[in-house]
């Protein structure tokens, strides 16, 4: 049941009831991490009550604590605990498992946020965002082009126009021109027009999902306040008023990408008909209409590019504006062009017969070349920004200067991830084309099959897997060496214990495996570089030979020809298997809650960021969660004047930091931050240095009342915050012991588990650190956070 609210504070809607102001009121607001949990588990009580929120995300308390502010004397032994549960934003129902098919869009959206931090260079920053948005646009066109390849080329053009293929697929019989009773749909143009409904429906579905998820997730308005943060000085834009409200940009990109999808389908339908009319000298009216249609499609494509390039995100204020009518009506205009293309292609052409392939090689080749050039341009821009990366502010005394940011791959993380997004798009488009071609034709070779470039791209999959296996072998060797070193360290941390080699090996192995997280930049760098190189080779081979690798290798020695045939067959099988795994995993997750939670964890990490580069990416849950946390903290501190500890585990610590940045400065200075198992620096600081780099984390340390961070060496996700100078030990606790006891003791009669990333609250240090934070928030203690002086430095008072 929900508690009723009596009246708002100061007339503000959504504020809790006014409570008696008391310095004794203390609240711990718990935010869980990836994978989700229940309020009963978070609060360690089977009786919990939802006090605010809905079925998607809500704040819970123990049933006995619902009116705790009215009884401050009952909680002198500790704070009142609240649990913010947001797991249904990502891993709630089975339908969201199908978002796995949107993985390339999510990955390219991550590349937008991975730009290096920089001082100045505003135009270069905007150029970086523009290049990523263009890469996202190529992925949309690639996905729709793959659907056109399957439906229009393989099914309607090749198979329906071949007697042997139709004989084995009777459901295509009504499209065949070789039957004695050939019907109205047997002409090639009409077959293409009918098949185009498949990619058109896919584009409509993507538009619908983007619009529906925005309404459900991203329409929550943040608290209105004046702009305060300047990315040039504090190193992050997460505190800007409009950062978590991207309605206008998502609507603009959605219109552009939807239009691009419809235009791609229109070009796939209309271009073959126009080519036939020009080549065969058809009626002059049809030839003129075909020329006008192609010119109009080119002009509409230019408008789409203009909309994508026109402007990026607006974060300095909550943007409620609307775009031009031209932008809003762009999808309808492109849909009208598609209808015109269908009418034009469906015009009677009795002497037109389908043969060979549709001109898909030029489309896929152009997309591959564009993506490669965009990635190379991103590398140049990212390197330029990385050279101007800011240092952490000198609010902390340092020895030997401030360290450089630990940006992943020295600033090349964004281009590398964009390359992986393009590779994933290629695997999905090539995989579905290869599998449908094999299904339609089998081993009969009755149809030409997919475009040559897709076959070349499939053929480079085996060499890429060889590189990947070599990298895995190297990492396994390094992990084994690290485990041997950790065994000596473990023995030194538990002196006087009876030696247990199996126990020591288990702890050391856990630490060594946890360290693999820090090797992720190397893996991404090697795989993306190999993908770029092999993709360039595939494009060059397709353009130079105009034939599949096995055919191009004819006439060479037997070894080369055999290797080409093996790579082509194995690659075709592997790329198709990759797509099937995507579909199978999504189907399993739809039925299996455990698998659904696993996929939910992927979205917890990947969809934290707003949709800035691709509107069809899975929705951003933080655009709901961060305003929720901000409103709750602001209204509670305003109503009670009490002390608040914001306690975040894993991904919850990232949400907690983002919410703290969104508070007013006065409220932010009355909040203590307790993070544990936190990826703030280890993952987000390295991969997203523009928003979580050393300068940004140092500014967060200066602005909240106090901050402590707990981590373990066995944790594969959490780690130290690594603030420079004196701030480092002030924030980071020394690594927690894990396990708490090496062997059996009086207090641990059974073997203590190796906890790794879980159960931080089971460690006695957790309660001690929380109590110290609450003591530092007491009003009797002098202000622990004097305002910065003219040089930007700040001090700390002793407790």
UniProtKB/TrEMBL annotation:
SUPFAM superfamilies: alpha/beta-Hydrolases
Domain of life of the source: Bacteria
Region (Disordered): 1-23, 777-799
Keyword field contains Transmembrane: yes
Keywords (A to Z) from UniProt: Membrane, Transmembrane, Transmembrane helix
Protein name: Integral membrane protein
Transmembrane segments: 97-115, 127-147, 255-276, 288-309, 330-347, 367-386, 407-432, 452-476, 520-546, 566-586
Biased composition (Polar residues): 790-799
Organism whose genome encodes this protein: Streptomyces populi
Biased composition (Basic and acidic residues): 1-10, 777-788
């Amino acid at each position: 049941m929900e508690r009723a609210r009596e009246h708002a504070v100061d007339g503000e809607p959504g504020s809790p009831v006014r409570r008696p102001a008391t310095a004794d009121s203390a609240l711990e607001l718990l935010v869980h991490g990836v994978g989700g949990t229940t309020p009963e588990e978070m609060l360690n009580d089977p009786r919990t009550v939802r006090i605010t929120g809905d079925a998607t995300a809500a704040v819970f308390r123990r049933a006995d604590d619902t009116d705790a502010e009215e009884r401050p004397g009952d909680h002198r032994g500790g704070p009142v605990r609240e649990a913010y549960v947001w797991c249904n934003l990502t891993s709630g129902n089975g339908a969201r498992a199908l978002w796995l098919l949107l993985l390339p869009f999510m990955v390219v959206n991550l590349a937008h946020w991975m730009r290096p931090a920089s001082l100045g260079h505003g135009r270069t920053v905007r150029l970086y965002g523009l290049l990523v948005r263009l890469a996202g646009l190529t992925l949309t066109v690639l996905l729709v082009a793959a659907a056109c390849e399957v439906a229009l080329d393989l099914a309607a053009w090749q198979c329906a126009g071949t007697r042997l293929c139709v004989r084995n697929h009777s459901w295509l019989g009504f499209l065949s021109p070789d039957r004695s009773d050939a019907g109205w749909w047997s002409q090639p143009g009409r077959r293409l027009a009918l098949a185009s409904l498949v990619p058109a429906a896919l584009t409509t579905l993507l538009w619908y999902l983007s619009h529906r998820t925005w309404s459900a997730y991203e329409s929550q308005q943040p608290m209105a306040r004046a702009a305060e943060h300047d990315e040039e000085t504090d190193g992050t834009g997460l505190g800007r008023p409009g950062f978590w409200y991207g309605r206008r940009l998502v609507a603009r990109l959605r219109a552009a990408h939807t239009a691009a999808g419809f235009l791609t389908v229109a070009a796939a339908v209309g271009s073959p008909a126009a080519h036939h009319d020009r080549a065969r000298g058809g009626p002059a009216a049809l030839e003129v209409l075909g020329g006008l249609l192609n010119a109009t499609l080119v002009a509409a494509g230019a408008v789409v590019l203009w909309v994508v390039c026109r402007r990026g995100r607006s974060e300095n204020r909550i943007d409620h504006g609307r775009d031009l009518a031209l932008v809003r009506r762009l999808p309808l205009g492109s849909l009208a062009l598609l209808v015109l293309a269908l009418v034009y292609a469906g015009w009677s052409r009795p002497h037109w017969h389908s043969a060979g392939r549709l001109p898909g090689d030029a489309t896929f080749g152009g997309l591959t070349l564009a993506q490669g050039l965009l990635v190379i341009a991103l590398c140049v821009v990212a390197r330029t920004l990385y050279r101007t990366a800011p240092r952490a502010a000198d609010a902390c005394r340092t020895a030997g200067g401030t360290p450089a940011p630990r940006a992943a791959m020295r600033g090349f993380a964004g281009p590398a991830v964009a390359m992986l997004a393009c590779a994933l798009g290629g695997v999905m488009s090539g995989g579905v084309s290869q599998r449908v071609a094999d299904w339609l034709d089998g081993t009969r070779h009755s149809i030409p099959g997919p475009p040559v470039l897709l076959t070349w791209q499939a053929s480079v999959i085996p060499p890429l897997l060889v590189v990947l296996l070599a990298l895995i072998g190297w990492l396994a060797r390094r992990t084994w060496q690290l485990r041997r070193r950790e065994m000596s360290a473990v023995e030194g941390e538990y002196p006087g214990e009876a030696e247990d080699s199996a126990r020591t090996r288990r702890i050391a192995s856990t630490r060594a495996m946890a360290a693999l997280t820090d090797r992720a930049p190397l893996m991404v760098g090697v795989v993306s570089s190999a993908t770029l190189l092999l993709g360039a080779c595939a494009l060059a081979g397709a353009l130079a030979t105009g034939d599949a690798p096995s055919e191009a290798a004819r006439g060479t020695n037997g070894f080369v020809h055999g290797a080409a045939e093996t790579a082509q067959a194995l690659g075709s099988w592997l790329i198709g298997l990759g797509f099937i795994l995507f579909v199978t995993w999504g189907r399993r997750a739809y039925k299996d809650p455990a698998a659904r939670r696993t996929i939910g964890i992927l979205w917890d990490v990947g969809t934290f960021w707003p949709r800035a580069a691709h509107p069809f990416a899975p929705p951003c849950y933080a655009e709901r969660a961060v305003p929720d946390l901000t409103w709750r903290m602001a209204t509670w501190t305003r109503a009670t004047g009490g002390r608040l500890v914001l306690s975040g585990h894993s991904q919850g610590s990232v949400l907690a930091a983002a919410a703290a940045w969104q508070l007013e400065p006065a409220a932010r200075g009355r909040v203590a931050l307790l993070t544990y198992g936190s990826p703030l620096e280890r993952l987000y600081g390295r991969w997203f240095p523009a928003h979580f780099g050393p300068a940004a984390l140092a500014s967060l340390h200066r602005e909240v009342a106090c901050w402590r961070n707990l981590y373990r060496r066995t944790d594969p996700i959490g780690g130290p915050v690594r603030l420079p100078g004196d701030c480092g030990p002030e924030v980071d606790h020394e690594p927690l012991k894990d396990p708490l006891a090496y062997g059996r003791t009086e207090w641990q009669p059974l073997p203590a588990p190796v906890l790794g990333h879980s159960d931080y609250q089971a460690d006695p240090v957790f309660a001690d650190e929380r109590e110290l934070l609450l003591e530092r928030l007491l009003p009797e203690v002098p202000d622990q956070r004097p305002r910065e002086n003219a040089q930007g430095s700040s001090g700390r008072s002793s407790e």
